[in-house]
Design brief:
Layout (H helix, E strand, L loop, with lengths): L27 H7 L16 H14 L20 H7 L2 H4 L9 H18 L3 E3 L5 H18 L6 E5 L5 H8 L3 E5 L9 H8 L4 E6 L12 H10 L3 E6 L11 H4 L3 E4 L1 H4 L14 E3 L11 E5 L2 E5 L16 H37 L18 E4 L8 H10 L6 E2 L8 E4 L7 H20 L1 H5 L12 H6 L6
Parallel strand pairs: 2-3, 2-4, 4-5, 5-6
Antiparallel strand pairs: 1-7, 6-7, 8-9, 10-12, 11-12
Length: 480
């Protein structure tokens, strides 16, 4: 089933123009002298619709989309928490928005970048940060390039990275982009890294290090984490921490104290920036002292109460983007950290763990929780194997949630669980909202037993019905 959604071009044209597009201030006779002929349009098809029609059209479209402003957004591994509006106000202050990086009057902006870096050092247990990377994936690449540069400067050839099978999909991709080949480690029965296999892999001699997030994508905190980093360091490797799952441990423990040498942090996840749909994001990279010289340029340091920008350094991996990163995202993160303080960050972490485990405990009678042999708590997220009665799949459950005005969790990830559904409620959801989600999941389970055909053809109440996944991926219709 597909409901008809009219485009603004289909709303009809008035007899008299109603749009408010100003006349071009360049004489038409001069346009072909300014622009190449192939870029000049003879006619721009702009619909003539009055302002109120335009406003209602886009308001109506916005209501068809799901967002955090409507309800819980439990995308596992994405940390889709509610973002305080005060952060939006502060990042739009004229002093931040009406300045260019090449202006001289940048002292306040540089101070914010420097102080945010110091705050992240304290939170993560690192010695220095660069705030330049535009997203977590770019932060990963920068971190792996730092690892590569470290060994190159010593004249040591290491061309392999160890990545567990519970890792984020960007981990092997980032390593491959940096020129490394991947050694995959299989998780043990508890969802943790088997120490004997890790040591065996490190003994090969050409392994640069380990890429890991803790807690992992199963929401499990590896109890052997200090032993893991000790093994990697014993054989001359470096430990990289994927900060995608930093949210449940901030204020509780620090990756640097676990033994990690490099970390990237998803500011747009953990530190409050609206994200999704491709951006904006920020993926600052932190390092221990022995890797500071390899950070990308420019680097901002403080000398005698002034902020100095170092544009080049012989040991640096170089530039990875223009200027100092997505500055608006940095302002939001700075505001968020300042508002919560150390105690607030710790409370947020605790609440994210509490919310995830509350949902897990309520769903456990109906849904299988893999890697739960010892009855341990999960951290901020957990994974259910959503293979329900009558061959109802994780995708069917996800589509049915849409019919209940709820956004579906991440499905089919991590890949080590066949019908994976990864649920992360974050700390910002109330018990009432958690209970609404729990009840919807229970209702779907009951419906799978009694009338699975409804679930297998869901969604029925959304603007667009169930798509052909293969066709939508191979031949998407992106515009009219």
């Amino acid at each position: 089933m597909t409901n008809n959604i009219e485009l603004i071009f289909e709303k009809g044209f008035s007899e008299f123009p109603c749009n408010f597009v100003p006349s071009m201030d360049i004489p038409e006779t001069q346009i072909d002298q300014i622009l190449p002929k192939e870029f000049i349009r003879e006619k721009i098809n702009i619909p003539d619709t009055p302002e109120f029609v335009i406003v209602r059209h886009f308001m109506n479209l916005s209501e068809k989309n799901h967002s955090l402003d409507r309800s819980i957004y439990p995308l596992g591994s994405c940390t889709m928490k509610y973002n305080p509006r005060i952060n939006e106000v502060l990042c739009r202050l004229p002093g931040f928005t009406q300045i260019h990086p090449l202006q001289d009057e940048n002292e306040g902006s540089l101070e914010l970048i420097h102080e945010l870096g110091m705050q992240l050092c304290e939170i993560c247990g690192m010695d220095a940060f660069t705030l330049i990377p535009s997203a977590g994936a770019q932060g990963e690449l920068a971190g792996i390039l730092i690892m590569k540069k470290y060994f190159e400067n010593q004249g040591i050839k290491k061309d392999k990275i160890i990545v567990p099978d519970s890792a984020h999909g960007t981990n092997p991709a980032s390593s491959a982009m940096a020129g490394f080949s991947i050694i995959e480690l299989k998780s043990d029965e508890n969802g943790e890294i088997p120490l004997d296999q890790l040591e065996f892999a490190m003994q090969e001699g050409d392994v640069a290090g380990l890429m890991l997030t803790n807690p992992n994508t199963l929401g499990i905190f590896d109890r052997n984490i200090t032993k893991i980093t000790e093994i990697v360091h014993k054989y001359g490797g470096l430990c990289y921490y994927d900060g995608a799952n930093l949210n449940p441990i901030m204020g509780m423990t620090r990756p640097g104290d676990m033994g990690f040498d490099i970390i990237h942090v998803n500011l747009h996840k953990t530190f409050s920036t609206p994200h999704g749909g491709g951006g904006p994001g920020a993926g600052p990279v932190g390092v221990k002292k022995h890797l500071i010289s390899h950070l990308p340029c420019p680097q901002i340091i403080k000398e005698e109460e002034q902020f100095v920008c170092i544009d080049e350094h012989e040991n640096s991996i170089g530039r990875i983007r223009s200027f100092w990163g997505n500055f608006g995202v940095l302002v939001r993160a700075y505001s968020y950290i300042k508002a919560l303080g150390a105690d607030g960050l710790k409370r947020a972490a605790n609440m994210s763990v509490l919310n995830a485990n509350y949902i897990r405990s309520q769903l456990q009678p109906e849904y299988d929780i893999p890697y739960n042999s010892q009855g341990r708590f999960n951290m901020h997220e957990f994974v259910v194997d959503a293979h329900l009665p009558n061959d109802v799949t994780a995708e069917d459950v996800a589509k049915s949630l849409l019919d209940r005005n709820l956004y579906a969790p991440t499905i089919y990830f991590p890949l080590i669980i066949h019908q994976a559904m990864m649920i992360e409620p974050t700390e910002t959801e109330s018990k009432r909202e958690l209970d609404r989600f729990i009840q919807a999941m229970k209702d779907i389970y009951q419906q799978a037993r009694e009338d699975p055909s409804i679930i297998k053809t869901a969604p029925h109440k959304t603007p667009v019905g169930r798509l052909d996944n293969t066709l939508a991926a191979r031949k998407p219709i992106l515009r009219e």
